[in-house]
Amino acid sequence: MADKTVSEKFTGRVVKQVAANARSIVVLCFVVAVLSSAWALTRTPRWSAWAAAIVPGSTSSSLSASAGALGLGDAMGVMGALGSGVLPQPAGIDITLATQILGSRRIQERIILKYDLINRFRANSMEKATKKFGERFSVTLSPEGIIFVTAEGSTRTEAAAIVNDIVDFANQELLTLVTSRARRSRIQTEGALSLAQDSLEASREAMESFRARTGLIFPEQQASSMMDVMASIESEMVSAGAVLHGLSGNLSSRSAIYSQASAQYRYLEDALRVRSSSGDSLSIFPVMDSMPAYMREYENLVVDIETRSAVYLFLRQELENLRIEESKESPTIEIIVPPAPEYLRVYPKRAVMVITHVAIAFILSIVWIVFLTWFRSVLDSPESGPFVKGVLADVRNQFRRHGNGAEKK
């Protein structure tokens, strides 16, 4: 049997058909290129921004990088299998936890709600919006312990803002999730400090009420001044009594001088008695009889205020110390490279889209030509041709009969 010529072989026939339909293929690729360009112009552009962050005080290795990819539970299993000497446990947990929080669903939902991405994605549920946002957002951990956060937005500014918000929300979640001993102590101390402050305010209000009720602003100084006044009255009364006693031997009780000295002595006596018993409206000091009770009440109030002030100051100092300890123990994410938006948009890449669509159209055209060439060879084959033509004829007859029946009806 003689060998077939190139034109008679299947490959030759395919090449010949491609050459015969080259114009149609070029026209099809051109139309696809135009339609692809027009479609790309209708797409909403997106820009990408990224930032580099670290967890201070933590170290990382290739194991921690794999931990970030596997997830927190799998990562802990890997670390337990390889031994604690490969990666320091606290540091590995901190950086892995920070990575998981950055990529968590809760952070994504907060971003979606803040930027109203459900409507912009035209999603009918949070699940679909989260799925779409997950395609435009990524968190990766390098072997050196640097976390790279990348996100896409409709503008360069929005993309950078989304990256910033992701880090801020993650820090807020870390403060809520990390339950260290210092944090629990800090929460309890805050409650005790609030009670101590309320107690101190109650003691101060009691002291204020005491001062308004008694008129004693500075009781020690006022009591000393009161004693000085009473001593002065008593001294003057002794002098007046001596003068009155001297005049009684020389003058009659009806004498004007004797009456004046007697009236002065009675006034001083009444003033001394009033200030030591009931007091009067002209006195600025409480009566002498009530001073011991007032001083005792004042001393109790002073001791109460000083005690509660000491407790309040102690708790205040302890709270500050616990906050410092908590900040040391809690992992925080710090940005070392601020969010930097890319100069070129990440979507749509018009040139790539046009080239890709044209290449797909060209390949499909070649595939279609190959299929038609093969099918024609099957029809022209003396073995399979009659059978295939008969099957096609039967199919056409079925449709023709159905159509004729419908017309008759």
Please provide a written account of the structure.
- It is built from 15 helices and 4 strands.
- The protein is of the alpha+beta class.
- The model is unreliable at 60-90 (pLDDT under 50).
- Helix 3 packs across helix 5 and helix 14 (350-380) crosses helix 15.
SSE layout:
Layout: H1 10-20, H2 22-41, E1 47-54, H3 62-70, H4 72-82, H5 89-102, H6 105-114, H7 117-120, H8 126-135, E2 137-141, E3 147-153, H9 156-177, H10 181-214, H11 219-248, H12 256-276, H13 291-329, E4 334-341, H14 350-380, H15 385-408
Describe this structure in a few short sentences.
The protein has helices at residues 10-20, 22-41, 62-70, 72-82, 89-102, 105-114, 117-120, 126-135, 156-177, 181-214, 219-248, 256-276, 291-329, 350-380, 385-408; strands at residues 47-54, 137-141, 147-153, 334-341.
